Amino acid sequence: MKEVTCLCGWQCRGTEDEVVEQVQAHGREVHGIESSREEIVAIAVEVAAPAASVDGPPA
Ligand SMILES: [Zn+2]
Predict the structure, then answer these.
(1) What residue ranges of the chain have pLDDT lower than 70?
(2) How far, in Å, from the CA of 29 to the mean position of ligand 1?
(3) What is the pLDDT of residue 42?
(4) CA–CA separation, 3 vs 41, rounded Å?
(5) What is the pTM (predicted TM-score) of this model?
(6) What are the tens digits of pLDDT across the range 32-46?
(7) How far is the CA of 28 from the centre of ligand 1 (A)?
(8) From CA 22, how far away is CA 12, in angstroms rounded?
């Protein structure tokens, strides 16, 4: 799971694809900028998935 924090304090989390989509929409709507996937992936940080996730390693 990835997390991105914008300079304005806005945050989003999700899969890489979800984060890229959300950050692009946020940048466009709030800041009027277009961000490339590469830029977004570069600032995204890996965070632990929620406990309910089925993707995690077995307990
Ligand atoms: Zn922002």
Answers:
(1) 52-59
(2) 9
(3) 97
(4) 10
(5) 0.80
(6) 999 999 999 999 999
(7) 9
(8) 7
Residue 6 corresponds to which amino acid? Answer: C
Whether residue 7 is contained in a domain is answered as: yes
The predicted pLDDT at position 50 comes to: 73
Q: DSSP label at 55?
A: S
Q: How far is the CA of 21 from the centre of ligand 1 (A)?
A: 14
Residue 54 lies in a domain: no
How many structural domains comprise the chain? 1
Chain position carrying tokens 């959300």: 22
Alpha carbon of 55 to ligand 1 centroid (Å) = 29
Query: Where are the extended beta strands (E) located within the chain?
Result: 2-5, 11-14, 45-46
Provide the pLDDT for residue 59: 64
